[in-house]
Structure formats: C-alpha cells, structure tokens
From TrEMBL:
Name of the molecule in the record: Sulfurtransferase
PROSITE patterns listed in its UniProt record: RHODANESE_1, RHODANESE_3
Record-linked Gene3D superfamilies: Rhodanese-like domain (3.40.250.10)
Stretches assigned to the Rhodanese domain: 16-134, 167-272
Pfam short name (any one): Rhodanese
Keyword vocabulary terms for this entry: Repeat, Transferase
CDD domains associated with the record: TST_Repeat_1, TST_Repeat_2
Transferase among keywords: yes
Length: 277
C-alpha cells in the first residue's frame, strides 16, 4: 500500500469516487499552533489537526513533551476530524512532513489501514498550481473505531536496553547528539549506545529521498538485514518521520515517543556526550 502521495495523484484522488479525508497537521517548534496558518490557506476540504492536543497529551515533564495520546483522546479527535471507517487518509504539513508523519504513524498504529503523506507538503501542492481554500472545515462526526497502539512503540526502559540487541537511532541534529548544544531539554547529550542519524538527511528539498539513498543512510548507521531498529528524537516527532523513512526503505523502525525530552527529565538516567555511542 502506498505511503506517500504526490500533489497530482492527490488531486486526481480527490476528484474520484474514493472517500478521502485530508488532514492538515501544521506544527513547528517556533510556531506550535498551526491553526492561524491553516485558516489562512489549506488544501480543499482539509481538516485541521492540533498536534499538541490531538496527537499527544499534556502530562508531567517526566513523560516527555509529546507523550502518546490515550485511546479515548485519539479516537475522539479522529471522529471530530470526520474520519470514517474505510476512508483513505492523507496527511500534510508545511515543515518537512514532521506533523504529517506523526499523524501517519499514530493512525497506522491505531488501525487505520490506508494513511499516506503528501510528499513535499503544502509547498508541493502550491508549486503544482493546485487550489487552496480558506477558513475552517468542520465535517460531521466520523465513525472510525481505533485500537490501542501496541506495536512499533518502545518505552524508556526498552529504549535503554535497545543497543544491547539492536540499533538505537538518535535522529536529532549532530550538535545536540554530541551534547554541544541543548536549548530545549534540561540536559545535553544522548542515550548511551545510540547512533546518530540526523533526520534531515532523509529529505531533499522537502521531499523524501529515493529508496536506495534511504537504505544507504540506515546502513551507514549500522542497520543491516534483520537488525531491530528503534528511533528517538527530541519529543517523538522526527522519530515518527524516521519510521516513515524506514517504511519506505522496507525497514521496520520502532519509535520511542518519550525521546530525549523524557530521558533528560528522568533522574538517574545516564547521559553520553561526544560523537560516539
């Protein structure tokens, strides 16, 4: 089943008979509230998704900045978006498919069979000369039924033990991995045993790189056939995008949602610095 969709394919899909729900998941570190940008212009029929409150829950710092939403929270949100059983879901954003990948990962994990990410996001749609709409889209409540996310997710203890049997990827920028800088979380460094594979390397001009390049990047980080792979980032957003990159490359990537924001807020957890695991 397709994981990505390009603007022209999406335009054709929307014009056809298939039931499609488009989700606008605009979020970025410097502007976490994407609603104003959404109201200013979005894909036709797209429903706004609040990453901080629909795709995460606000808890204590020890849980990380974007802990997984509970099943009731996620299902209520999905039904509010108008999502119905059997619909194709297409997610997009305007920041390197970050929010879109988080929605893709959560919905796939919760049982939605067909979820695709608009490759290149809003910019690719606009560059293709396709129309945008303004204002809010408020669909009738949907009937989708989700289930608990039990596969492809690791907790803090599993992340700590992961390097003993597989490859744990830290997909933050190299300077944060090395502990040279940290402007968001309380400690600088990385989880001992983690290998750095910056998530930015998986994109080129806002789009995912080709399959061979993605596979080569994972291989350079020590991922070989049959290797159990898990990924973390600052708060579980870029790690979800790495899970999508892995899926494109035929590699199953488990996500540690608590990521560095949870690890660095948990007393007693060891911290490594430098460019080695």
């Amino acid at each position: 089943m397709a994981l990505l969709i390009d603007p022209n394919q999406l335009s054709e899909l929307l014009a056809g008979p298939a039931a499609v729900r488009v989700l606008d998941v605009r979020w970025r570190l410097d502007r976490p509230d994407g609603l104003p940008a959404y109201l200013d212009g979005h894909l036709p029929g797209a429903v706004y998704v609040d990453l901080d409150y629909d795709l995460a829950e606000q808890r204590a710092p020890q849980d990380g900045r974007h802990p997984l939403p509970s099943l009731p929270v996620l299902q209520a949100a999905a039904q509010r978006w108008g999502l119905n059983e059997g619909e194709i879901v297409v997610t997009y954003d305007d920041w390197g498919s970050m929010g879109a990948s988080r929605a893709w990962w959560l919905l796939r994990g919760a049982g939605v069979a067909d979820v695709r990410v608009l490759d290149g996001g809003l910019r690719s749609w606009v560059d293709a000369g396709l129309p945008i709409e303004h204002g809010a889209v408020l669909p009738p409540e949907g009937d989708v039924v989700l289930h608990e996310i039990t596969a492809g997710v690791a907790d803090i203890d599993q992340a700590a033990a992961w390097p003993d049997h597989g490859v744990l990827l830290d997909v933050r920028a190299a300077d944060r991995y090395r502990g040279q800088t940290e402007s968001i979380d309380p400690q600088a460094g990385h989880i001992p045993g983690a290998v750095n594979l910056p998530g930015t390397e998986q994109l080129h001009r806002g789009r995912f790189r080709d399959v061979d390049t993605l596979r080569a990047g994972f291989a350079d980080a020590g991922v070989t056939a049959g290797t159990p792979v898990a990924a973390y980032c600052g708060s579980g957003i870029t790690a979800a995008r790495t899970a999508l990159a892995g899926a494109l490359a035929g590699i199953d990537v488990t996500v540690y949602p608590g990521s560095w924001s949870q690890w660095s807020n948990s007393p007693g957890r060891p911290v490594a610095t430098g460019d080695q695991p």
